[in-house]
Amino acid sequence: MDITKFRPNIVLEGAGEAYEEDFWGAISILPSGRQNAQDKDNVIDGQDKQSSPIDIVLTQNCLRCQSLDINYTTGQFAKTQDEMILKKLMKDRRVDQGKKYSPVFGRYGFLQGDGARVQTGDEVVVKKTNEERTKFHWPGLS
Asked: 91 CB contacts (<8 Å, ≥6 apart)?
């Protein structure tokens, strides 16, 4: 499956179970060794942003729509079963009780602080795990 269909900002690997991220509440990205860590452009409010942990709060499930089934080359909707990603997710990923007819794949995350840079190879630690999946709530939409 082409991961670019999901338009992710950050992709993590190495979780212990499939869809484990549904329960994550916060992660911390630990920057690996950086070159020029003392570069003045990397220092904000006296802190070296290249080597400080980057905290991200994960607030909501990422609900998916028909855009997953668009062929980016032709601009047309999927025509074969292999291209129908939304249909596949509808079978077992409708797990958010706040929006029970939309499949979930991924989480919305929000940076805590300013001036963070991440790169391939940075270590990620799950800082908070929720007991239950979050429930979509948006006044007027849920």
From this structure: none
